[in-house]
Amino acid sequence: MQTANINASFPLNAWYVIAWDVEVKKELFSRKIANKPLVAYRKTNNEVVVLDDACWHRLVPLSKGHLKNDEVVCAYHGLVYNSDGRCTHMPSQDTINPSACVKSYPVVEKHRFVWVWMGEPAKANPDLVPDMHWNKAENWAGDGRVIHVKCNYKLVVDNLMDLTHETFVHAGTIGDIHVAESPFETTYNEKTVTVTRWMLDIVPPSFWQTQLSKKTDYSGKVDRWQIISFQPPCTVNIDVGVAPTGTGAPDGNRAEGVNGYVLNTITPETEDTCHYFWAFARNYAIDDQSVTIDTREGVAAIFRQDEDVLEAQQLAIKENPDKVFYNLHIDSGAMWSRKLIDKMIEEENKIAKL
Amino acid sequence: MRFRKEWNKATVVAIKEVAQNVLEMELAPDNGAKPFSVGSHIDVQVYVNQKPEIRSYSLVGEQKDNNCYKIAVKKLPNSRGGSAYMWQLTPNDILTISQPNNHFELNLFQKKYLLIAGGIGITPMLGMAQVLAKRNADFSFLYLGKDAREMPFIEDLKLLNLKNLEVYESTKNGPYDFEKLIVDIDISTQVYMCGPMGMMQTIQKNWIKFEKKASNLRFETFGASGNFVSQAFEVHLPQFNKRILVAENQTLLEALEVNGIATLSDCRKGECGLCAINVLNYTGDIDHRDFFFSEDQKKENKKLCACVSRVVNGSLTIETAYKLP
Hints:
The structure holds two protein chains of two kinds.
Chain A: E1 15-20, E2 29-33, E3 36-42, E4 48-52, E5 66-68, E6 71-73, E7 80-81, E8 87-89, E9 104-105, E10 107-110, E11 113-117, E12 141-149, H1 153-161, H2 166-169, H3 177-181, E13 184-188, E14 193-202, H4 206-213, E15 222-231, E16 235-244, E17 258-270, E18 273-282, H5 289-319, H6 332-353
Antiparallel strand pairs in A: 1-11, 2-3, 3-4, 4-9, 5-6, 6-7, 7-8, 10-11, 12-18, 13-14, 14-15, 15-16, 16-17, 17-18
Chain B: E1 7-19, E2 22-29, E3 41-48, E4 51-58, E5 69-74, H1 82-87, E6 94-98, E7 112-118, H2 122-134, E8 138-145, H3 154-159, E9 165-169, H4 170-173, H5 178-183, E10 189-194, H6 197-209, E11 217-219, E12 233-237, E13 242-246, H7 252-258, E14 276-282, E15 285-287, H8 295-300, E16 303-305, E17 310-312, E18 315-319
């Protein structure tokens, strides 16, 4: 049975990250995605299985049970389900009820993430997994985390699609006056929204000074870039970096500089909570594990500042039910992104309403 | 999974006889058709002897853009009365129906499939064939019936240009050899079947006989048919010192309920086993129409599922769970 998704802020026909690859082991793992409690595990052949986390019988979470030969045994009465969600054992009877099944979801493992398709299984095309290849590519190194944020996933998308906030939320690390005051350009098409901002001939903020020093002894001014690209409904890759001023970075020659990708994909958990998966991948000092740890911890500290603002914002939205957002010029990236999300939801509801 | 039922009004918008004794009906729910996946059914409130009862009908084919549910109803002379009610409907009549539920969901990610439909059991299978054909899945379709004139939707199947479609008429070709069919099925093939009880029980027997993987055989039953034509029969309950009559178009469970005998039940289609009662004695034959008891248990005739099973050419003495200390 498919459930209509009217009035939800997220589409169901989309790939959502349920977990980092390393989070899913040969044991039961539970996480709620798009209002659905799910249970995930790895089979002996390492394939990931995702099922509804509620026993067909009396709805006890299957994640409370255990694995036996790649099948899930319910902790309550021992009903057993295979990786298709089909019941293979029932207690105290010689037969199995023909309708005993839990829903199993299409799964793809890509870019170090496990992706699950919550909508119509027939539409689950693996080619639709958002491009985040920098997370697992030659000549790139890095790592990331998942954080649980008590806000609607779109507020995180908004946050990433306009980095003006860096100047204020992240002053002293990645934020300085240049971010808020440099012009930017927003473009969009059916598949993506891009916000490009170049800060030319500036003194790099401390984070970037440190990164540049991993590659060169240069300590002068730099050209800094932030190219944010959104893939609906919830993936934002940010191409960031600095290069010594005048070495041609704005024209495409980044050879003298350092380049990173802030990879973000924000999975809705409920209407006012989300699982925020992020990573920082870099193309310099890629054999130096300490840089991986330093940048991961550095970004984690920066994102804690965002978390604080976003949770306060969600609370304020709830406490001001009579008020709506006022949008500024700086919000164009976020607003084009929301348009693409709305279109996905509209398409889905059109089908749902048939 | 089982979902809470929501009941709504629906209008009968079209009725068409699509094969001998088979009516196709399009129902337009007042609140709009809900999205459904193939294999789904709706529950319909019918009236039998002026009393409301529930019948389940599979939705025919994939969802269409017309805000309707399509069902097909076979006129069964020995039915419990549901088909007679459905057959007297005319366009613009109003029914009470549930939202679609799917207890027979097609898994899209199997290597191979075999779909088997028997007679009116074609109803959930047509949509599955449409979906699998669209996906270029590796599958065969076997459609069995007495006579093609009584087998609806053959043309819809032919439209799919399936490589492996077999329409089998038993009046021309004799009984189908299920043993031969099942012995060769490999472990990567998932079988979906819907049809009369006799067909499904034969397939299941062979499935067990040839030690096929139980989870690869998927089926749905609404408990509508048996191995014998339904007859009225008498039931003796020595516990309560009562004799009751089960009418031809009534189940044993319904008769017990009408007569104030406390019972338990849930699925009411021979799957869950909650309504199982002890058989103390019987004459004639017990027609086990459930999928709860194993073949061995059925042969013992010590218990039966009151919701679907019955007696022919005889009577029954039973006891319920009621027991004084």
